[in-house]
# Entry
Amino acid sequence: MDPLSAVGTTDVTSSVGVTALAALFATVTLGAIVPIVPTGAAVSASAAYAWHHEPILLVLTVVAGAAGAYVGDLGMYAVCRVGGRALARRLRWLRDEDHLVAVEERLRANPIRTLLVSRLIPGGRIPVLLAAAFLGLDWRTFLVANAPACLLWSVVYAAIGTLGGSIFPEPWQGVLAAVVLVLVITQGLDLVSKRKAAAKKA
# Structure
C-alpha cells in the first residue's frame, strides 16, 4: 500500500471519529436536558461503530458519553436549583411530587449510591436530580457524586453497543443491533418498574 494513501485514510478516520464523538457529546448533553432524546441508544450505537474501526474510539466513546451526561445533568440541576418547583412543573420535569419525598430520604442517606442507581433505572434519573435540587444538595457533593454515576452509565451502554458490534460483521448491523438491544432492555426494565409501582399502590 502506498504510505501516502495510508496516511490519508488515517486522517479521514480520525476526522470522522472526532466529528462522531462531538455529535455524541452534543446528543447526550441535549438528551439529559430534553428527556425524549434516546441518549443510551446513542452511546450504544457509537460504541458498536467504534468496535469495527479504531479501539481507541471505544474508550473515547465512553468518555464523550459520560461527559455529555455529566454536563446535561449539571444543566438540569442548575435550572432546578435556580427556578425551583415552579419552573420544573412548567418544563414538565416534575410530575409525581409524592415520589420525591422518598427520593429525598435516599439522597440524604447516600447521595452517591442514589445517583448511581438512578442513572441505570429507566425514568429514575430525573426524579433524583429534581429531589437533589429541591433538597438543596450541596454543589460540591453533587459534582463529586454524579461523576461516577455518569461514567458507569456510559460504560454500561457502551458495553451493550460493543456486544452488538461484536456479533455482526458489518458496522451498520452492529449499530442497529445495539439500538434494538437498548430499546428492549430499557422497555423491559420500565415494565418491571411500573409493575412494582402498581403492586405497591395496590
Summary: The chain has one domain: 3-201. Residues 1-13 have pLDDT under 50 and may be disordered. Residues 31 and 183 are 15 Å apart (CA to CA).
